[in-house]
């Protein structure tokens, strides 16, 4: 597919045109509640000036736009003829995510494997099919990012339909999928043909940005780490089981299902859950993971052993949100390094 060029000055008009035909989601600045700089969050955009495409990874991922924190699966009502079950109506308008970071787009194919494994989750895939993803290359990766250790890049293309790479006062536009080609074709007034020189400049920029990712891990040894390695009991003792890491993670997907209402009427809802919580996987007779270390072991093993066994990829894209936002200073990259060193030491005995 031919690459294109988009002038920065044309972005507001392009977004305005998109808003006339679709729901637009993108990073926008949150309200400033303290002396700290306001954080960017993915939100529905209502005007071009709402969009924030400058440097910085949004504080939360795109996950909630495909897998909501609280989702009504159906409502029920007891009537004289039986139980009436009504499924919720889904949004029919097309949706464009404009300005996603490559790591958040890369998380979507990872989630696709989960929600399409065995029985397909229809509401999740309905949202996926009705959404076009336009990513913007990270021109200033944060020191907590480690995407290159997991096959990603500040200019990664996984999960994206279009990739924008800023080069001065223009964006280089990489058209990556049929959806991306349809989007570019729908707005011909804003996208122009890219020159060979612009293509080369994008390649040079991509290499330079990858070199800025200095945090590295090797997740491969975790696939061989022993379930009963004594090191598990020593790791992350400072963790407070708050669940922030799982809720901010773009690939964590554990959920609980509850009925809200009474015997006459109510709703069945799906709610985000976390392996950090004490009631996670609790059964009537017992809690199989009563100690904290068992629950954190589940998190690491799920990401770097169980999921890779099933899908030959890690359940992590290296976005670094868990490192940056943990209130107790738990660093997953240090955990992985320590586990890898422990395994190497045991193999050398």
Describe the structure.
By secondary structure, the chain is α+β, with helices and mostly antiparallel strands. It is built from nine helices and twelve strands. The strands form two sheets. The protein has an eight-stranded mixed sheet with strand order 3-2-6-7-8-9-1-10, sandwiched between helices. It has a four-stranded antiparallel sheet with strand order 5-4-12-11, with no helix packed on it. β4 and β5 form a beta hairpin. The mean pLDDT is 92.
Keywords:
single chain; alpha+beta; 4-stranded antiparallel beta sheet; 12 strands; 30% helix
Strand order of the largest sheet: 3-2-6-7-8-9-1-10
Helix content: 25-40%
Biggest beta sheet summary: 8 strands, mixed
- As a percent range, the share of strand residues is 15-25%
């Amino acid at each position: 597919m031919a690459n294109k060029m988009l002038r920065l000055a044309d972005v507001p008009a392009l977004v305005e045109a998109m808003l006339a035909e679709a729901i637009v989601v993108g990073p926008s600045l949150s309200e400033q509640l303290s002396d700290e700089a306001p954080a960017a969050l993915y939100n529905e955009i209502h005007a071009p000036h709402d969009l924030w495409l400058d440097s910085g990874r949004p504080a939360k991922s795109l996950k909630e736009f495909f897998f909501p924190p609280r989702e009504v699966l159906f409502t029920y009502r007891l009537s004289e003829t039986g139980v009436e079950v009504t499924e919720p109506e889904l949004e029919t308008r097309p949706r464009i995510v404009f300005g996603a970071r490559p790591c958040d787009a890369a998380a979507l194919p990872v989630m696709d494997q989960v929600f399409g494994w065995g029985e397909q989750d229809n509401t999740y895939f309905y949202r996926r099919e009705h959404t076009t993803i336009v990513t913007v290359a990270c021109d200033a990766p944060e020191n907590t990012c480690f995407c290159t250790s997991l096959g990603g890049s500040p200019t990664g293309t996984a999960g994206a339909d279009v990739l924008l790479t800023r080069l001065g006062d223009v964006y280089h536009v990489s058209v990556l999928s049929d959806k991306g080609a349809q989007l570019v074709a729908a707005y011909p007034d804003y996208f122009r043909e890219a020159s060979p020189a612009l293509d080369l400049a994008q390649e040079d920029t991509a290499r330079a940005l990858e070199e800025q990712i200095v945090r590295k891990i090797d997740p491969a040894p975790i696939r061989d780490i022993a379930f009963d390695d004594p090191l598990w009991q020593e790791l992350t003792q400072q963790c407070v089981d708050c669940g922030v890491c799982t809720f901010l993670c773009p690939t964590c997907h554990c959920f609980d299902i509850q009925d809200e209402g009474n015997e006459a009427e109510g709703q069945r809802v799906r709610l985000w859950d976390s392996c950090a919580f004490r009631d996670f996987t609790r059964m009537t007779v017992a809690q199989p993971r009563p100690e904290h270390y068992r629950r954190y072991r589940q998190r690491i093993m799920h990401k770097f052993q169980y999921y890779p066994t099933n899908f030959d990829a890690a359940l992590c894209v290296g976005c670094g949100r868990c490192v940056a936002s943990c209130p107790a200073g738990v660093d997953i990259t240090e955990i992985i390094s320590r586990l890898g060193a422990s395994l190497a030491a045991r193999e050398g005995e």
